[in-house]
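Q: What would this chain look like folded?
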Amino acid sequence: MEQEITGYHLDNEQHWVAQLSCGHFQHVRHQPPWQSRPWVTTEQGRKKMLGYALHCKKCLIGAPKDTK
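A: My prediction, written as structure tokens:
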């Protein structure tokens, strides 16, 4: 299920987490070669991706909304 990015926060390990419109959170790490997301490394890049839809696996399983 596709859900839009509405914001971001850092987790306890200082990794970026996208906050999705459904209320779930999803890590958006840039760790080449496994995950190539250079946009997450800058504030400008993260702002540009607001509204971008990510696949939310938590919605598919009916998981409750996440909390910080």
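Helices lie at 43-48, 57-60.
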